[in-house]
Amino acid sequence: MSSLASSPPSRLSVGDPDFDWEIARRVEVLMDGVPQKYVVAYDVSAGVVEAYASDSAGGIVIDLDFHMPVILALTGNVSVRWRDDGGQDA
User: Fold this and answer.
1) Cβ–Cβ < 8 Å for 51, 39
2) How many CB atoms lie within 10 A of CB 7?
3) Following CA atoms 84, 85, 89, 90 in sequence, which dihedral angle do they give, to the nearest 10 degrees?
């Protein structure tokens, strides 16, 4: 298990070569104060969150032409914090 810093990293992406699942599952990402689901990348200073698109039932949207999940780039006030539950349902 990785040791956790006092605050989460200000930038994280599943595509990073040094991506750490132990850290990622404990981070909660908020856009304009609203917790985000299905986040694949975020950058606090750039104000960007990339997340899988979800349908009204909460399922991930798949692009049928490319057979890939749809990723949305959201912009706004991004903040991160350690999850209260330690990432148990991540």
Assistant:
1) yes
2) 10
3) 50
In angstroms, how far is CA 9 from the centroid of its own chain? Answer: 12
Tokens of 14: 């599943």
For residue 89, what pLDDT is reported?
A: 54
What does the alpha-carbon distance between residue 47 and residue 17 come to, in Å, rounded to a whole number? 22
Could you tell me the pTM of the whole model? 0.85
C-alpha–C-alpha distance, residues 23 and 33, integer Å: 21
Whole-number Cα distances in Å, 7 to 25, 38, 79: 14, 21, 11
Please state the rounded mean pLDDT for residues 29-37.
Answer: 97
| Alpha carbons 76 and 44: distance in angstroms, whole number | 9
CA distance to 6, 11, 56, 77, per residue, from 87 (Å):
16, 18, 24, 22
Q: What would you report as the CA-atom Rg of the chain, rounded to the nearest whole angstrom?
A: 13
